Amino acid sequence: MAEADIALIGLAVMGQNLILNMNDHGFVICAFNRTVSKVDDFLANEAKGTKVVGAHSLKEAFEEWNKTELDSFLIEITANILRFKDTDGKHLLPKIKDSAGQKGTGKWTAISALEYGVPVTLIGEAVFARCLSSLKDERMQASKKLKGPQKVQFEGNKKSFLEDIRKALYASKIISYAQSFMLLRQAATEFGWTLNYGGIAMMWRWGCIIRSVFLGKIKEAFDRNPELQNLLLDDFFKSAVENCQDSWRRAISTGVQIGIPMPCFTTALSFYDGYRHQLLPANLIQAQRDYFGAHTYELLAKPGQFIHTNWTGHGGSVSSSSYNA
After folding, report:
1. Which of 184, 244, 285, 319 is geometrically suited to a Cys-Cys bond with 171, CB 3.0 to 4.6 A?
2. Which residues cross the membrane (predicted)?
3. Is the pTM of this model over 0.70?
4. Cα dihedral: 216, 220, 221, 227 (round 10)
5. Structure confidence by residue, pLDDT tens digits, 209-235
6. How far is CA 237 from CA 171, 205, 221, 230, 243, in A?
7. What DSSP string describes 73-114?
8. How far apart are CA 2 and CA 213, in angstroms?
């Protein structure tokens, strides 16, 4: 967004006329209104083709997002938190210590994912992000010594970037639910359960902090195909992620360039890219494991056969049972 000379709050008739008048006299004006859609309408109509720019608050962004496919309890309360002011009239959120606590539900899920070999990476990263946040004293020291990128402020169209972030959040949310249902399916296999996955989604629809309109789409996916292996393979969710993909990648690359930690966005995209590839560099991992521990590997051309190679041509054999990694 261009740097403005003057900011004006309020887009009633007088406010709009003042902005357009000052624009005609060569000033760059930043327009703000408590209803974010009014800013967008003004920029798209009366102020179209001028140097007038719009300002959007985070509160308004979340309020608008809650009118989209992101409609959910957590998005709703985030808007309320961003709006809330302390007794001194200042916003409360910046006063709260940035050290997140946890009761253990995320940790239990991450442990179960590791036990059953299911890549529930988003919940894992969310837990680790809380752990990192709790290192407040260490982070205070590190902030004085560790350098980041010189460019630390976004330069560009903020409205477009907010839309990129919204789509990145939606895509990452889809990945998180896809991973969670992978864990449920694996647990059902381990314990011989017969689970109604669509029913489980709707059970979370009410009285739960993850309740959202989005859960209805999950039920519809399992109604279409009760044996669905992964939500990403459902036509609706496949199209949704594809529609978000460019924005998702832009949001992440921009954040990386200005040094913003985005553990869940980045791990979600990494999972998506890994899941959609026929071949992954895990063959190198298998070769390394066989090299240092004789753990054997399987050839693509000979499925079911496990082979050990003497990689160095000398030395004794190492039993795979004597070293496990």
Report:
1. 244
2. none
3. yes
4. 120
5. 788 888 999 999 999 999 999 999 999
6. 9, 18, 8, 10, 10
7. HHHHHHHHHHH-B-TTSSBSGGGS-S-----SHHHHHHHHHH
8. 36
